[in-house]
Amino acid sequence: MAKGDYLGDLEQLTLTAVLLLGDQAYGMTVHERVEELAEGFREVSLGSAYTTLERLEQKGYIKSWFSDPTPERGGRAKKYFKVTGAGQLALKNSLKVASNMVAGLREIGGMA
Amino acid sequence: VNIHADAFCETYASLTKQFEAARDLNFLTTSMITRFRSSLGELIMQELARRSVPGFTPTDDFDRRQLADWQDDFVHMILQAQDELRRQTSSSVDGDIDPKSTDLQECLPPINAEFVFYFFLDGPNCDAVVGDLEERYRRINERFGTARANCWYWKEAIRTTGPIAGSWAKTLVMKPVIGVLAWGMAKGLIGHDSWLAALVEMWKKIRS
Fold it and tell me: Among residues A12, A71, A110, B1, which one has the fewest Cβ atoms lying within 10 Å of its Cβ?
């Protein structure tokens, strides 16, 4: 894994949320899911979710597109997101690192 | 009213376009247009219901001439609504009517909080963020009332603006910083006797 491929915790949470939501991944739903996933550990604002999504898009881990405007949102469009192959790989690598850490800590009895 | 779904969508899309075109002919602000457009779907349903009473029976084989008539009528309705809004606006300046009390402006988030996003985001992204907030605002408004929904919207707008403004500032500051660094490097190279020696010196400094 290259140095730049490392994902921060918020990036991991956001990628996971987008993956879990599938076709329904747009700003608000992603934010809600990230809040659920991070419940009790950290607070995430909609702005943080959007800046993280933008950063992930710049890295090529997700792609985005705008839907048609809808009346229930005051005639505004939704911005949908989807995880790319590179994004899935990056998340998989991050999870592998985390599981290695857990395994290492278990060996010394650091975690139950 | 059992209207064919495609025909309804077509009517709605067409009306929305015509309404946007009509916007250029009057003084309405963008936010008022957006707010009016959000209630356009409801207006269409009311009009469809009203028109079905005298004997029109909607079928799958949709009557396009009827649709065209409706479109004309809706353009008329929109123009009437614009006149009404214009009248209300001028009256509110005189202190007769409070525009916040009209039906068209019910269940709407605080416009001042919304405005802050226009500073930092481009058009489509701004619409997406404001739309997300508005979607949740409506849900909170339905459940807890306008006062609490407004309070939530302000809080969330402030929380949301922080990271977005930070990202905007980062982008804004990065370009001049890179420019100054490049200028400094170029000046150092030009002023030095040997550009190769200067490069090596710089590399050593970076490495140390």
Answer: A110
Chain A residues with CB inside 8 Å of B163's CB? 45, 47-48, 50-51
Give the count of beta carbons closer than 10 Å to the beta carbon of residue A4.
7
Tokens 């419940």 label which residue? A39
Which chain A residue is nearest to residue B164, measuring alpha carbons?
A: A47
To test the contact with chain A by mutation, choose from B20, B36, B43, B132 the residue with the greatest count of A C-beta atoms within 10 A, namely: B132
B123 touches chain A (CB under 8 A): no
Q: Which residues of A touch B28 (CB under 8 A)?
A: none
Interface contact A27-B129, CB threshold 8 A: yes
The dihedrals phi and psi of A26, each to the nearest 5 degrees, come to: -130, 170
* pLDDT tens profile A59-98: 999 999 988 777 667 778 889 999 999 999 998 888 888 8
The span from the CA of A82 to the CA of A63, in Å, is 5
For the question of whether the overall pTM of this predicted structure is more than 0.90, the answer is: no
What are the distances in angstroms from CA B114 to CA A20, B121, B177? 30, 12, 31
Residues in chain A: 112
Chain segment B90-143, per-residue pLDDT in tens:
555 444 434 444 343 455 666 666 677 777 777 788 888 888 888 888 888 888
Shortest CA distance to B11 belongs to which of B38, B39, B52, B45?
Answer: B45
Identify whether the C-beta of residue B82 lies closer than 8 Å to the C-beta of residue B28. Answer: yes
In total, chain B counts a number of residues equal to 208
The C-alpha atoms of residue B48 and residue A42 are separated, in whole angstroms, by: 49
